[in-house]
Amino acid sequence: MLSHKKTGFKPSVFSPEEKTELGKLVENPKNGIVGYIELQRWVKEQFDKDVKYITLVKCMQHNYLRCAEYCRLYNRAADHIEKVSIHSTCILE
User: Fold this and answer.
1) Which pLDDT does position 89 carry in this prediction?
2) Mean pLDDT of the 9-23 span
3) Residue 49 to residue 60: CA distance in whole angstroms
4) Are 15 and 22 in contact (CB under 8 A)?
5) CA triplet 46, 23, 39: central angle to 5 degrees?
6) Are 30 and 72 in contact (CB under 8 A)?
7) Tell me: the pLDDT tens digits for 40-92?
8) How far, in Å, CA of 85 to CA of 67, rounded?
9) Which of 40, 44, 55, 60 is deepest in the core (most CB within 10 A)?
10) How remote is the C-alpha of 55 from its chain's centroid?
C-alpha cells in the first residue's frame, strides 16, 4: 500500500509577536524599506534570524500583500465608479 511521509504543514518561521512587528513595518510608508533584500536585512537585525529570500517573499505575500493588493484594487474600482458616474451625469444634462 502506498503512503506518504508528510506530517502536515510546517510551523511558521515567525512567531505571532514577530508577525505583528512585520505588520507594523509594512503599514508604515516611511520605514525606508524598498524591497525584500532590505526587509531580509531588517529581519536579521531585529529578530536575529536568517530567513531565506523566498520564504520571506511567500510570508509577506500570504500575510500582508493580499490586504495591500485588495486596498489598491478597491481604490481603483472606486475611482472608476466615480469617473463613470460623473460621465453619465454629463451625458444626461
Assistant:
1) 45
2) 87
3) 16
4) no
5) 45
6) no
7) 999 999 999 999 988 888 888 877 766 555 566 556 655 655 554 444 444 44
8) 27
9) 40
10) 13
In angstroms, the CA 64 to CA 26 distance is 8
Alpha carbons 27 and 23: distance in angstroms, whole number: 6
pTM exceeds 0.90: no
> How many residues comprise the chain?
93
CA distance 35 to 39: 6
Q: For residue 15, how far is the Cα from the chain centroid?
A: 17
Distance of CA 77 to the CA centre of its chain: 20
Nine-digit cell string for 10: 510546517
